[in-house]
Amino acid sequence: MKKFFELVLKGFDGSSDATDHLILWVKTSFDMDELVGWLIEEGLYGDCESAVIHAVLNLPDVVDEPGLDFDLPLQAAEFKLRVSALCAQPIEMDQ
């Protein structure tokens, strides 16, 4: 069963609508720990210098896909391109 998560990118400011584009909704078969582990392996989350994701939030009440941005890891390449563009920071892409 797919689960839904909200990924908060660095630079998001909850007091302003101007940074709402820095929130991404994803669905995945990963549980929270697996998703966080995958994001860390990809260099997108954690203490590494390239980390651009500030928070990973579980969305347990979401059961439908409106507003969904990505299905991970199936759309990993597209996800990385969007994150890179939003953060104006190059993200290393797998060959």
Protein architecture, described:
- With 95 residues, this protein is α+β, with helices and mostly antiparallel strands.
- It has one domain.
- It has helices at 32-41, 76-87; strands spanning 3-9, 23-28, 53-58, 70-72.
- It has a four-stranded mixed sheet with strand order 3-1-2-4, with helices on one face.
- The protein is globular and about 30 Å long.
- The mean pLDDT is 87.
Give me the secondary-structure topology.
Elements: E1 3-9, E2 23-28, H1 32-41, E3 53-58, E4 70-72, H2 76-87
Parallel strand pairs: 2-4
Antiparallel strand pairs: 1-2, 1-3
Helix content: 10-25%
Using only C-alpha atoms, the radius of gyration works out to: 13 Å
By secondary-structure content and strand pairing, the structural class works out as alpha+beta
Record the strand order, biggest sheet.
Answer: 3-1-2-4
> Count of helices?
2
Tell me, rounded to a whole number, the average pLDDT.
87
Alpha carbon gap, first and last residue:
29 Å
Largest sheet: 4 strands, mixed
Q: How much strand?
A: 15-25%
The ordered string of helix (H) and strand (E) elements is EEHEEH
Give a brief description.
By secondary structure, the chain is of the alpha+beta class.
Keyword list:
23% helix, four-stranded mixed sheet, 95 residues, alpha+beta, 2 helices, 4 strands
